[in-house]
Amino acid sequence: MKAFVTGGGGFLGGRMAQLLVERGDEVVSYSRGDYPALAAAGVRCVSGDIADEPSLRAAMRGSDTVFHVAAKAGVWGPAREYEHTNVEGTRAVIAAARANNCARIVFTSSPSVCFDGRDHVNASNDLPHAQAFLCDYPRTKAAAERLILEANDTTLATCALRPHLVFGPGDPHLLPRLLRRARAGRLRIVGDGANQVSLTYIDNAAWAHLDAADRLEIGAAHAGQAYFVNQREPVRLWSWIGSVLAALRIEEPKRSLSARRAYVAGAACEVVWKLAGKSSEPPLTRFVAAQLASTHTYDLGPACRAFGYVERVSLDEATRRTIAHFSAAGAR
């Protein structure tokens, strides 16, 4: 495979690039900055704007498979930045892939494209997109996912994967944020603490993309489709967080905030931040409040049946590796 990875400098894109190199594939990473560790591993690194189609076209030349991972994530920021990266960037990736006669695109989407604030229990890949969104990230990711799936035709095979809450060694987002708040005594249990969620270990998320690409061709069962990717076993979110904190010798949160009060507080924070013109992320938003209080678990069966996905790392082992990493990082 001659793979082209957008966002190869990120958490998930970087792990995918590493796995591709390790199994003998040629890899080009297209990201915003320079990543010496990737280059040292044998990845050809190109810097550029994801929405710059001519640059993408030149960097993609000779590739047959595109892993489109690059995105503007987060729950706060100017809408134009989300549109530029997630929507315009995806249009440019598709156009560049067609210009280079690439055979396939595997797109990294998100379960948040379907999140409507309600509980989703063992939801399957036929769950529809939400009708309204609480922030620009899921709104623009939903638009990007539609572009990718609509691009599937007789000359280009496409599919989308929706890994949920990716975690593991090197995680720069999910766990570090929780750990910082817990250490500062500012972490609160949102809701009744009984909600279950599906998590995705970084290696499993990366391998799912490779599995999907290996079997993706015109007319494949998963061509033109979107699939949830996660651990087979869901967790009770706040119990899992508590077990990680306990293992790292950080005090577990004792105080709680009802789902309704958290949502109202998030809405108030958003108003204050907008009126003040602050660029920093508010301490709470409606989207985060709803996510922390609700159940969102997903059925892995469709991904296993459609493209043979196999979970490489169990939840217990994934949690152990993650705790070991953050324990060592804390010691330093």
Task: Figure out the total of helices.
Answer: 12
Name the strands of the widest sheet in spatial order: 3-2-1-4-5-7-12
The description of the largest β-sheet is: 7 strands, parallel
Q: In CATH, what is the homologous superfamily of the domain at 2-166 and 199-231 and 298-312?
A: NAD(P)-binding Rossmann-like Domain
Shape label: globular
Task: Report strand %.
Answer: 15-25%
CATH T-level fold name of the domain at 2-166 and 199-231 and 298-312: Rossmann fold
Low-confidence stretches: none
Number of strand elements: 15
Distance between the first and last residues' Cα: 39 Å
Rg, alpha carbons? 19 Å
CATH class of the domain at 2-166 and 199-231 and 298-312: Alpha Beta
- Give me the secondary-structure category: alpha/beta
Describe, in plain words, how this protein is organized in 3D.
The protein is built from twelve helices and 15 strands. With 332 residues, the protein is α/β, with parallel strands linked by helices. The chain has a domain at 2-166 and 199-231 and 298-312: Rossmann fold. The strands form five sheets. A seven-stranded parallel sheet has the order 3-2-1-4-5-7-12, sandwiched between helices. Strands 6-15 form a two-stranded parallel ribbon. A two-stranded parallel sheet has the order 8-11. Helix 4 (79-99) links the parallel strand 4 (65-68) and strand 5.
Which helices and strands, and how do they pair?
Elements: E1 2-6, H1 11-22, E2 26-31, H2 36-40, E3 44-47, H3 53-60, E4 65-68, H4 79-99, E5 104-108, E6 120-123, H5 136-150, E7 157-163, E8 166-167, H6 174-183, E9 189-190, E10 196-197, E11 200-201, H7 202-214, E12 226-229, E13 235-236, H8 237-247, E14 256-257, H9 259-276, H10 286-293, E15 296-298, H11 301-307, H12 315-331
Parallel strand pairs: 1-2, 1-4, 2-3, 4-5, 5-7, 6-15, 7-12, 8-11, 9-14
Antiparallel strand pairs: 10-13
